[in-house]
């Protein structure tokens, strides 16, 4: 058994599954008090505060009618939605959000399809007018809201001419990236062409002294490049073994990423390498793995025995497998992960139980998505208790937990229930998405602490079934 205290249901018991999350003199009660004490004053103010992926309405301290509605994808996979999202945040234009599935992971609602028969994202409504295509949307927002931090040089100036040329360079970079990423033909030639274009991009970053393309201030050029450079950095390390940042190959690119990661607008929308490595193939029709990418992919996927195991290495501008210039703050990152788990425990438990459940009747293109999956709800009590162990260890740490009365204690009699909980935890771990669920530093803490649970349970399960 895995004792959880007198008022917590044991992992394989049949007590009320949710009692230990919110009531009684239990470790989770202490955890909730800790969340209140340490986090209430700094909880994200979704309407007025820093950029946050859960926000559905952004006001930026302004009153009056909201003229813009943004339709973007639920999981924050779409790079074109990312561009418009960043522009709205940088210009601080009040807007509301409706999240729409991408076809590769779900159905689109009929109400959206009636407005946009193509179903393509992003879309905005400006004063009730439906506008599609990210480039058209971004130009329209610049023209309509000139008093909201102009992000492009004035028309007809040399600076504007250069900015327009850089937009064309972004399309060339995009083309050369996909040509290499999505094919295993002419690997060396495609790599050489991509690297030559990256040399041009880096040179343009330096031309005005950096750190941004047009100098010290962010512009629409940076916002246009940003989603692609983010996805290029993730995918080429994973599939080709090439790091475009963090290893000194292109110092201007390192400086540009550091400057972007200093902005709350970007950190609130930034994904991670793992999420992109798995969201790009269903969007692009597949990515071609090269042998040099295999060890990097193992680290990004957390199957190298180190990257998703405690103790986690520190994050930095040169950390591997993923650079992250803001660094990490493990106590705060663990708290963020625990808070999300505690507040959403019922939905998380049900979601995780898709692991030992049945595949859905309507599969989608994204392998890690199965919106119609049938969860194994008969294991709710066990999975609920196991995830409370994870929340507790996130809050107090492994050492403190394991010397407490509420230590994780497994036995060799777990049997099939243990297998179900391991499957649920693995399913959940592999589907923690950034930024949809939490920031990257918190996500890696959650993944590693889920592995702590899995490793403990799997060892006992193996003994029981040997």
Give your account of this protein's structure.
- One of its GO terms (cellular component) is cytoplasm.
- The chain folds into 3 domains: 19-42 and 328-465, Globin-like, CATH 1.10.490; 57-144, Glutaredoxin; 158-300, Glutathione S-transferase Yfyf (Class Pi), Chain A, domain 2 (Up-down Bundle), CATH 1.20.1050.10.
- Helix 2 crosses helix 15 (380-396).
- With 466 residues, the protein is mostly helical.
- It contains 18 helices and 5 strands.
- Please state the second-level CATH architecture of the largest domain: Orthogonal Bundle
CATH class of the largest domain: Mainly Alpha
What is the spatial order of strands in the main beta sheet? 1-3-2-4-5
Please state the overall shape, judged from the principal axes of the Cα atoms.
globular
Described by strand count, sense and barrel closure, the largest sheet is: 5 strands, mixed
DSSP summary, beta strand count: 5
Count of helical stretches: 18
Kindly provide the radius of gyration, computed on alpha-carbon positions and rounded to a whole number of angstroms: 23 Å
Low-pLDDT residue intervals, each spanning 5 or more residues: 1-19, 23-27, 36-43, 412-416, 460-466
Fraction of residues in β-strands: under 5%
CATH topology heading of the largest domain: Globin-like
Helix content: 40-55%
Protein name: GST N-terminal domain-containing protein
InterPro entries: Glutathione-S-Trfase_C_sf (IPR036282), Glutathione_S-Trfase (IPR040079), Glutathione_S-Trfase_N (IPR004045), GST_Omega/HSP26 (IPR050983), Thioredoxin-like_sf (IPR036249)
Domain GST N-terminal: 68-149
Organism: Volvox reticuliferus
